[in-house]
Write a structure and sequence with these properties.
Largest sheet of chain A: 5 strands, parallel
Number of strands of chain A: 15
Oligomer: heterodimer
Largest sheet of chain B: 2 strands, antiparallel
Strand content of chain B: under 5%
CATH topology of the largest domain in chain A: Rossmann fold
Strand content of chain A: 15-25%
Helix content of chain B: over 70%
Radius of gyration of chain B: 19 Å
CATH class of the largest domain in chain A: Alpha Beta
CATH superfamily of the largest domain in chain A: Response regulator
Number of domains of chain A: 2
Distance between the termini of chain B: 51 Å
Number of helices of chain A: 14
Structural class of chain A: alpha/beta
Distance between the termini of chain A: 62 Å
Low-confidence stretches of chain A: 17-25
Structural class of chain B: mainly alpha
Mean pLDDT of chain B: 89
Shape of chain B: globular
Low-confidence stretches of chain B: none
Largest interface: A-B, 43 and 41 residues
């Protein structure tokens, strides 16, 4: 027994060194998990499209040339925080996932945010709205990529008040996202001299908005703010048309609307809606080229801002990993992502702030009238470009502990 | 302004009327479920998916064939009904001799498959379907703006429910149906083709779901999950009304729509759960449901 021990040790040492030599020759392994809603209310803005976008990012990055070996997996968090957190834990602990992206739905994102910090992995959220991810809940492991509730509030909320909509009534989805959106929009309205005269919370998901719309209608508010998303917003806008809300002189403000929602509503119902997005497929040649590639794999559908965000986030993440030559230390990778400026064909040049906020311009769009639209996906006209430092929350206002002083 | 518990009466009436409209959908859907359960003893979990199919067929008729709403109102239930007949013949008919649970599992599986197929093809955001020109616009009532289309939904629903009830309770055909439920062997001995009756009943039950789907298409987002969202509530309605009770399902459908409407006035956050609270209370007091017969 005693005699055999050094032999075993020697054999072990040989094995380890063999593995190390092999490892040096092989590429750095990276595993990316796309965690989204693949079957529920948000599966058109997340779902398979996010996986396709991540795959396109891999195609463009060419990991093999840069010493990386990237594997992609995906799962459905069903918009449930417990399911999302459990999946994230399993991915980090058992499946060797280094980075999670997409994660639409704020409540799920906040849960995954904690898990990523605990396991020191990387979480780049492209789909959720809550600005708390870069506020009180910010961590050294999380980056919030595409938009947040403050940006939507500043964009759409600010624009509506500027156009004279100074009294508001909210129809709010009763969970983390809706509440954050209402809170942040209320701040913008109050700051610009407007007033919120009422709000109603609706269960999520919800299909019938008639009673909420009726209350909003009788409130006499000039603007009805829809603090919801996805199918909820579609139903609300559709039913607002039916109840003659806009004909009665009230304006509808969809605080979070994606191009897939407008496509589903059609320009006849959605015309005139003002909305804020950081991406539209028809912005320039680069976005059109990306969208064509995306469409070919997605049954003709155009990418949403979330899909574009997954593409851009994966690209920047891989650049950071290639720089560090290892994906294991999540906080170090995120620090690297913050140190490097971002640059990709879809969002252009930008930066990642110390609190995890990815900075880029946003656009104020208006939905075209049926006569102006030349096809089922020709939906927006650009009203203005809102610079990153105006649309996102100032660094010292979020209450993020990573921001000193 | 007059108020009741701090809520203006105008708002209250408005919400009650809206509740009645939502109740119309509950009533048609739960009526179909009740008929199917009453005569076939099948708990038809595919009902929501078939309701969704009704809405999609309406959209397809408009998009691919160019047939508008009124055509869809007649054709879509027919298509869904025929689909139901095929389902019944090929799959469900094999389960009559087994426990309820098998029928429930089978129809639940069918629902998931149908929803999955539609989701794959059309995504979840849904498809646009406009209110027919004849019914757009609305009436300015003293207490609210009532879209014409919503008024039509109540009328259509009441008519269909009443007609169905009359056929089952007052005609010879209905008498055969009821007899076949009570004692199929005896009725068969009289020369009545009972299996055919059951097939047609299932077809009719799901055609009602298809009809509700067409009614819903112009006001709700036409998307593959629309049935899954509503079917759980409708099941609660059927349980409260009493499984298999035809008139019970209709009355409960409308009544619970009203209750939901009231909840939206006083405590909107609870509007998604109030029906289930009532279900629990009713089951505690009357396990067979409000209108159900205890076996």
């Amino acid at each position: 027994m005693i005699g055999r021990f050094p032999l075993a040790k020697l054999a072990g040492a040989l094995l380890v060194s063999a593995a190390m030599i092999g490892g040096a020759a092989a590429q750095t392994a990276v595993k990316i998990g796309v965690l989204g809603d693949r079957s529920g209310a948000y599966s058109d803005i997340s779902g398979e499209g996010s996986v396709v976008a991540a795959r396109l990012a891999l195609e463009d990055f060419k990991p093999a040339d840069k010493g990386l070996k990237v594997e992609l997996i995906s799962a459905d968090h069903q918009n449930k925080p417990d399911v999302g957190a459990a999946l994230a834990r399993q991915w980090f602990d058992r499946d060797g996932v280094d980075m999670i992206t997409d994660v639409v739905t704020s409540s799920v994102a906040l849960a995954v945010n904690q898990v990523a910090k605990e396991k020191n992995k990387v979480f780049v959220d492209t789909g959720a709205g809550t600005a708390d991810l870069t506020g009180p809940q910010c961590t050294p492991n999380t980056i919030h990529w595409v938009y947040d509730t403050v940006a939507l509030a500043n964009g759409t909320g600010g624009a509506m008040v500027k156009r004279g909509g100074n009294t508001w009534y909210f129809i709010t989805a009763d969970y983390a996202f809706g509440q954050a959106l209402q809170r942040d929009t209320t701040n913008v309205i109050n700051k610009s001299g407007g007033k919120v005269i009422g709000a109603v919370k609706t269960p999520f998901p919800n299909s019938d908005f008639s009673s909420s719309l009726l209350q909003a209608q009788s409130s006499g508010a000039k603007v009805i703010g829809l603090a919801n998303a996805g199918t909820d917003t579609i139903n609300a806008v559709k039913q607002a048309g039916e109840f003659g809300i806009t004909e009665g002189g009230q304006a509808l403000a969809g605080l979070l609307i994606f191009v897939s929602d407008v496509h589903s509503l059609g320009t006849k119902v959605a015309q005139g809606l003002v909305l804020t997005e950081p991406f539209y497929w028809d912005l320039n040649d680069a976005t059109r080229a990306f969208s064509d590639r995306f469409s070919k794999q997605m049954n003709g559908k155009k990418p949403t801002a979330n899909h574009a965000g997954v593409y851009s986030a994966v690209l920047h993440y891989l650049k950071a990993v290639a720089e560090k030559k290892s994906a294991t230390d999540g906080a170090a990778i995120v620090a690297q992502m913050k140190a490097m400026p971002t640059d990709d064909p879809l969002f252009g040049k930008g930066t990642v702030r110390i609190d995890g906020r990815k900075m880029h311009d946003m656009y104020l769009f208006e939905v075209k009238k049926p006569a102006e639209s030349t096809g089922p996906w020709d939906l927006y006209k650009k009203l203005e470009t809102i610079p990153a430092n105006e649309v996102f929350r100032a660094l010292n206002e979020g209450g993020c502990p990573l921001v000193k002083g | 302004m007059t108020t009741i518990f701090g809520v203006p009466t105008q708002a209250l009436f408005g919400q009650l009327l809206l509740g009645l409209i939502n109740g119309s959908f509950y009533a048609i859907l739960s009526l179909g479920l009740a008929i199917i359960f009453g005569l076939l003893n099948i708990i038809n979990f595919a009902h929501g998916a078939l309701y969704m199919m009704g809405a999609f067929v309406a959209w397809m008729l408009l998009t691919y064939v160019g047939l508008g709403y009124w055509w869809a109102l007649g054709l879509a239930p027919l298509v869904v009904g025929v689909f139901g007949v095929v389902l019944e013949r090929v799959l469900i008919a094999r389960l009559y001799k087994l426990d309820h649970l098998y029928g429930l599992l089978l129809t639940f599986g069918i629902a998931l498959i149908i929803q999955g197929l539609f989701r794959n093809q059309y995504g979840v955001s849904g498809l646009p379907y406009a209110i027919p020109a004849e019914l757009s616009g609305g009436q300015r009532l003293p207490f609210m703006f009532l879209p014409n289309y919503r008024g039509w939904v109540v009328v259509a629903s009441l008519t269909v429910c009443l007609a169905t009830w009359l056929v089952i309770e007052k005609t010879k055909l209905g008498a055969y149906l009821r007899a076949a439920t009570e004692n199929p062997t005896l009725v068969q001995a009289f020369g009545v083709n009972v299996p055919l009756f059951l097939t047609l009943t299932y077809g009719f039950g799901v055609a009602l779901a298809g009809f509700a789907g067409v009614l819903a298409a112009p006001i709700y987002s036409v998307n593959p999950n629309m049935g899954a969202d509503i079917i759980i509530v409708v099941f609660a309605v059927v349980v409260i009304g009493g499984m298999g009770s035809i008139i019970g399902s209709v009355i409960t459908g409308f009544a619970l729509g009203l209750v939901e409407g009231l909840t939206k006035v006083f405590y909107p956050e609870a509007s998604a759960t109030v029906i289930f609270v009532i279900m629990v209370l009713v089951l505690l007091v009357k396990p067979a449901g409000l209108f159900g017969r205890t076996a």
